[in-house]
Design brief:
By secondary structure, the protein is α/β, with parallel strands linked by helices. The protein has 13 helices and nine strands. The chain starts with a helix and ends in an 8-residue tail after the last helix.
């Protein structure tokens, strides 16, 4: 009986010590939780769970090597079919630039915009503090709400816009839609039927591709919110013919040393345009949908387009204090 009593006593002591250790350990944890972290709520199980969930989100936002997801410091706002994807890929060769893989369409889509900046941030790439996060969505350029929305997020942000010969851009726009419809088995309108108003025999200003190419009208909205020095204009035609020159100008605009060189870019004779050399893949070109042959357009149609855009181009050049070699 004495032996059995000693065993019971030993078990009781062990249980007592365990309970004490558990109590004081939990007390230390609870004392380490600030009332400010819980918005001064009572220390309930629900509030502690909320704190832990918030800390988990922070942990997910920063990966193990010190990178974090950040709102972009620079946005490529457009224009469509002016080389925005090519520029994004080329700039991704710079070690201090982290581009987003996909177009986020945050500032031009009301549903996405209403999801808030945290949602937008989650669609950004991981980056180090010294790196520049870069996003591109060409639809921003023509969206009326986009300039004010971006300004509200960051009034000192840097913007990049690419412009091509407006007539060439209209044809490129048509070409993309043409091939997309062919792939889906849909009927395709002739270029002439879209770009010319049959009633007046003049340029159809209701054709969306034409509207986009009136760059002056769109840039006016952006300059209501941003200073000229915040907006870098890339010559999209030169980007195709001599990409390195335009890339180096963007590097300078972003306050970065030029790190993209002729060693990173080469002309692919098979594809007919410039591609990239990367450390991982060695060679990388844009998708097969890029660089497709444009349809033949009658010279009379081209002349009408050039004449239509000429006065808008003159006002554009005066607005941005920059000219382009857009031959008539």
């Amino acid at each position: 009986m004495k032996t059995k009593g000693k065993q019971v006593l030993s078990i009781a002591v062990i249980l007592f010590v365990t309970v004490c250790l558990t109590y004081y350990s939990n007390l230390a944890v609870w004392n380490g939780i600030s009332l400010n972290d819980l918005d001064k709520e009572s220390l309930t199980v629900g509030s502690v769970r909320k704190l832990l969930e918030e800390e988990e989100l922070v942990t997910e936002r920063a990966n193990s090597n010190g990178q974090q997801k950040r709102l972009p410091q620079c946005v490529i706002i457009g224009a469509r079919k002016c080389g925005t994807r090519a520029l994004l890929e080329f700039l991704g060769l710079h070690p201090l630039i982290q581009p987003a893989d996909q177009e986020v369409h945050f500032f031009d889509d009301d549903r996405n915009y209403n999801r808030g900046y945290e949602w937008y941030k989650e669609h950004m790439p991981y980056s180090y503090p010294k790196q520049i996060t870069l996003e591109k969505s060409p639809r921003y350029f023509i969206t009326e709400k986009a300039p004010e929305r971006i300004h509200q997020m960051n009034s000192s942000i840097k913007l990049i816009v690419l412009l091509r010969n407006p007539t060439t851009r209209v044809i490129s726009d048509y070409t993309q839609v043409y091939y997309n419809k062919i792939a889906k088995g849909k009927d395709v309108d002739k270029f002439e039927d879209l770009v010319i108003d049959k009633k007046t025999n003049q340029i159809n200003t209701g054709y969306r591709a034409v509207q986009i190419s009136i760059y002056y009208n769109h840039l006016l909205r952006w300059f209501k919110f941003f200073k000229r020095e915040q907006v870098h204009v890339v010559d999209g035609d030169k980007l195709i013919m001599n990409p390195l020159s335009e890339i180096n100008k963007v590097e300078q605009f972003l306050g970065l040393q030029s790190r993209v060189t002729e060693n990173n870019i080469y002309f692919n004779t098979t594809r007919g345009f410039y591609c990239m050399r990367t450390p991982k893949t060695n060679q990388k070109c844009l998708g097969l949908t890029k660089g497709r042959k444009h349809p033949h357009i009658e010279s009379s149609i081209l002349q009408k387009l050039n004449e239509f855009f000429r006065p808008y181009n003159k006002k554009l050049f005066s607005l941005i204090n920059q000219t382009f070699d857009w031959d008539d």
